[in-house]
Amino acid sequence: MKGNGDQTMRTISFAQATLEAMEEEMTRDGSVFVMGEDIARQGGIFGQFKGLPDKFGKERVIDTPISETAIVGAAIGAALAGMRPVADMHFADFMGVCFDEIFNQMAKIHYMFGGQKSIPMVLRAPDGMINQAAAQHSQSVEAFFAHIPGLKVVIPSNPADAKGLLKAAIRDDNPVIYFEHKGLFSMKGEVPEGDYVTPIGKAKVVRQGKDVTLVSYSMMMNHAIKAADELEKDGISVELIDLRSVSPIDEETILNSVAKTTRLVIAHEAVKRCGVGAEIAALVAEKAIDCLDAPIVRVGSPFTPVPFARILEKEYRVTTDTIVAGVRKVFA
Amino acid sequence: MCAKAERREPARSPAEYGAEKLRWFYETMVLIRNFELKVEENFFAGEIPGFVHLYIGEEATATGVMGHLRKTDYIQSTHRGHGHTLAKGADPKRMMAEIFGKKTGYCKGKGGSMHIADFSVGMLGANGVVGGGFTMVTGAGLAQKMQKTDGVSVFFFGDGASNRGTFHEAINMAAVWNLPVLFVCENNQFASTTPYRTTTSVDDIADRAQGYGIPGVIVDGNDVFAVYEAAGDLIERARRGEGPAILETKTYRIKGHFVGDPEKYRTKEEVQHVFDTTDPIPTFEKKVLEAGVMTREDLDAMKAAAVRKIDEAIEYARQSPEPHVSELYTDLYVPAPETV
């Protein structure tokens, strides 16, 4: 099978795609290394690092103590001293442990030292809901980091982008947070053979449509696609945008789409309040309100922690149906 | 009863040091002292904005440790970082310009006193967050080990910072990976306004080294010879790949936590008494004069040179332009490389 251009496509999992990205970038650049909890001997708790130490040794694939603060801090220090570290956060929720290192140090060093040294590093952060993991192992926290000047934040929805964005993040000279939804690791999809990067800050129009723009990303993008299929049966033509990066946000792609469709819905798994959807809604309200024929609708999780019990989790979860209902609102 | 850290007295006499090293010690200490006195003066005169923390009385630690470091070795410092930065070889003019918030400063006026860095001499940054550097220095040490250099990384921190969780995470990590890192605790007796013993469970922070299976050494932090000798052994050990250590230098913060601190937590008499009896600069003078290795004229000439140098730095800072407002938006991101 062929993708765009001459690249041969094959079907691999999201986890396998990230592993290929690591292998290719570690081969390409000797200063790239990875550290985190349970990654070398265990291969990562989602298997996303399996086999990496066999190729690169335990000196470049490093098992750390359970010390998230020191993991991020040491990655910054190694970057200051000329390396290009990738640090695994185990669960995105655990970034709460090392928030000073992320927002006071990693994000600010290049600016507050007057551009003397960039911080080329990546934090890989498995996020999202899976298997009733409850309040501290399920969150989608991308909005916290999109609010911090100095960081880039990427969040792929499929194996091809998982590989391309991880390679772009590793090559970027700025600190990049790479969110990978835990529910996506086993997802299979077409991935081009060989070397390519997915540019950071560029959204993708996944499907052209004329009636409504539906912006999403990560796991929820896959629900958005199903929602669009559903809505099409009722004659609603949805233009689907996969944001791919939440910092920077690709304003141009969103504004161009809204100018065409005149309606906007944003869907994400994160809590709706002050989420990325709020930023996109504000962007369109500020720059394109005259284009709109209906109020903007945001679809996101309720303003509570992620609950444990099945019935409560079901009530909490954003689904294809929630998105369909959200889109119908703009035609009410 | 827990095992105690080793207390070290200087074993060598000043005469064994050689004129060059002795001169460097004194020049560095009086340079720092005069830098800080001028910063204080200009802060009160309204020329320096922001928060400023002075290193007066603690000069022997930065000088004694830095006496062993190469340009290619790394340090990180604290909010009280002028002394470490000067001793590592930074230019007082560009430092002063930064403290004045000028375009010619090390950080183009974007950092200020608490955020000075000079990567060209291996000074990887001061830090406005107490204990913020433990983990970063550990990472710099990890890089040195991966790059197979014999470089070392040194973190300076206070007694207050020793109660941060970063202390534990970083020192355990440096110890378990055997990294070339020296953690230097300048115990200046006060965590901001709180006497350290009221919030710290041990008399000697270096005693905690036992808990990580690494050496802990305590010295008189007002005696540059004591600091130099102890730091030398620990730094050489790190260069040989034998791992990290904690060096605690007992000193005293002569000035307030910040310039303008009303200092209600101690008496003027206490401060004056400590200063009169332990000031590292007269302590050094007495030793070298008694040993007959330097003369009063030598010392006075070096002191006068330091005063001139700092006067020039003040003048440079004053004359330098402010940053252009467009600089607000630069240095936020590095442009993406062609390949991305």
Walk me through the structure.
The complex is a heterodimer of chains A (332) and B (340). Chain A has helices at 14-28, 52-56, 68-80, 99-106, 109-112, 142-146, 159-171, 218-233, 251-261, 276-288, 310-316, 320-329; strands at 9-13, 32-36, 61-63, 84-88, 122-127, 152-154, 176-181, 188-192, 204-207, 212-216, 238-242, 245-247, 264-271, 297-301. Chain A has 2 domains: 9-192, Rossmann fold, CATH 3.40.50; 204-329, Rossmann fold (3-Layer(aba) Sandwich), CATH 3.40.50.920. In chain A, α8 (218-233) crosses α12. Chain A is built from 12 helices and 14 strands. The termini of chain A are far apart. The longest helix of chain A has 16 residues, at 218-233. In chain A, β10, α8 (218-233) and β11 (238-242) form a beta-alpha-beta unit. Chain B has one domain (6-320): Rossmann fold, CATH 3.40.50.970. Chain B is built from 10 helices and 8 strands. The longest helix of chain B has 26 residues, at 19-44. Chains A and B meet through α3, α4 and α5 of A and α5 and α6 of B.
Summary?
Chain A contains twelve helices and 14 strands. By secondary structure, chain A is an alpha/beta fold.
Beta-strand residue percentage of chain A: 15-25%
Count the E strands of chain A: 14
Structural class of chain B: alpha/beta
| CATH architecture descriptor of chain B | 3-Layer(aba) Sandwich
Low-confidence stretches of chain B: none
Shape assignment of chain B: globular
Identify the strand order in the major beta sheet of chain A: 3-2-4-5-7-6-12
* Largest interface: pair, residues per side: A-B, 46 and 49 residues
| Proportion of strand residues of chain B | 5-15%
What proportion of the residues of chain B is helical, as a percent range? 40-55%
Q: What is the residue-mean pLDDT of chain B, rounded to a whole number? A: 96
**Assembly status:** heterodimer
Give the uncertain stretches of chain A in residue-range form. Answer: none
Number of β-strand runs of chain B: 8
CATH class of the largest domain in chain A: Alpha Beta
**Structural domain tally of chain B:** 1
- The span between the termini of chain A is 42 Å
Q: Determine Rg of chain B (CA atoms, Å).
A: 20 Å
Q: Supply Rg of chain A.
A: 20 Å
Overall spatial form of chain A = globular
